[in-house]
Amino acid sequence: SSVQVALGSRSYDILIGADVIDSAGSVIRDILKNPRVAIITDDNVAKLHLKRLQASLTDAGIEHSAIIFPAGESSKSIATYGDLMNRLLDSRLQRDEALIALGGGVIGDLTGFAAATLRRGVDFIQIPTTLLSQVDSSVGGKTGINAPQGKNLIGAFYQPRMVLADISTLDTLPQRELLAGYAEVVKYGLLGDYQFFEWLETNGKKVIDGDAAARIYAVEQSVKAKARIVAEDEREGGIRALLNLGHTFGHALEAETGYGAHLNHGEAVAIGMIMATELSVRLGILESQDSGRIRAHFKSVGLPVAVPEIAGVNWTAENLLAHMRQDKKISGGKITLILLNAIGDAFSTNNIDEPDILSLLKQELQE
Ligand code: NAD
Ligand code: ZN
């Protein structure tokens, strides 16, 4: 199936299905200005899915080269970006040739930023291979790399020309990465689509366990939600902020653990969504029955609902609040939070007093 991101002359399609990689060549040939592309990927994904993509490009008469980086967040760096630019410029890549990002959010963000800045902009195509990148990072045009000073501090808004989400690639994804992406899937239900949340309550386990039809539906609904929000608010002046549900708390948890393997982004966001939910209940905005339902669903699929004990990490409410104050989503001196009126009805506020946030954090940390 296909979903469009409506952005005028920069509109693009997201194709979702099983084995779409195998027809990537014929699908993208029409939008290429030149039948030549450079594929950017990481060493995990290269072993598993690069040959399929190369075969389909060759079949469609598209010339291709591949640049492979080590898997992991460390490849979203200034050094890797510099290396990538050098290699692309050395390879005589002309202005009208395109880049293909084959991989998760790391490869997508890095490749998108390279495409945005190479000769002031070349076309790029996203082929996301993690659940997180299929439902979130490949859609919407946020590209970038990390700086020593913090995550995603160097970047650009730059939309891809097409997104190909092949759910068969998820068959090789480790369970923990799959769950991390699932946290973002539930987020779309919680922030704006009660019926989707209800569907996930019944079918979420199927999505996790590998049912292809359930995966296609979940990716499609997620992408539709993101596409709608991005079309309305490309540069995050308003409604796009709702996508940060669970993220202000989540980023604080990630920062406290040094973005390590102990707590990945999806896990941090899952706990963050629980915190936002509980805060909404404490403020008398959300019914406790609803927060119970959310918690029960997270538990039933295996998402964390509480801050885990991690060796070397001394969680305190004060430390987490300090990280939240530093988060870029702060405005007018107050922390911006996304809270819930109900399941499927989120809103943004910067009207929450810090003592209320602090006491919520103390409750969650059982301080
Ligand atoms: P990732 O790209 O690091 O992928 C996770 C791991 O899975 C890696 O080890 C990767 O090699 C491996 N992998 C990828 N596809 C696989 C497959 N099909 N089978 C087996 N292994 C596979 O991480 P991610 O979770 O996809 O993305 C996280 C990144 O996305 C972060 O840098 C985050 O900042 C960024 N992000 C960006 C946006 C945005 O709007 N641009 C939104 C959310 C997150
Ligand atoms: Zn996220």
From TrEMBL:
Its EC number is 4.2.3.4. InterPro entries: Dehydroquinate_synthase, DHQ_synth_AroB, DHQ_synth_fam, DHQS/DOIS_N, DHQS_C. Binds 1 divalent metal cation per subunit. Can use either Co(2+) or Zn(2+). The keyword Lyase applies. Its cofactor is NAD(+); Co(2+); Zn(2+). CDD domains: DHQS. Pathway: Metabolic intermediate biosynthesis; chorismate biosynthesis; chorismate from D-erythrose 4-phosphate and phosphoenolpyruvate: step 2/7. It comes from the Bacteria. NAD(+) binds at G105, V106, I107, G108, D109, T129, T130, K142, K151, T169, L170, D171, T172. GO terms for molecular function: 3-dehydroquinate synthase activity. Residues 67-178 form the 3-dehydroquinate synthase N-terminal domain. Pfam families: DHQ_synthase (PF01761), DHQS_C (PF24621). It catalyses: 7-phospho-2-dehydro-3-deoxy-D-arabino-heptonate = 3-dehydroquinate + phosphate. Zn(2+) binds at E184, H247, H265. Residues 181-329 form the 3-dehydroquinate synthase C-terminal domain. Keywords: Amino-acid biosynthesis, Aromatic amino acid biosynthesis, Cobalt, Cytoplasm, Lyase, Metal-binding, NAD, Nucleotide-binding, Zinc. It is found in: Cytoplasm. Belongs to the sugar phosphate cyclases superfamily. Dehydroquinate synthase family. Catalyzes the conversion of 3-deoxy-D-arabino-heptulosonate 7-phosphate (DAHP) to dehydroquinate (DHQ). This is 3-dehydroquinate synthase. It comes from Sneathiella sedimenti.
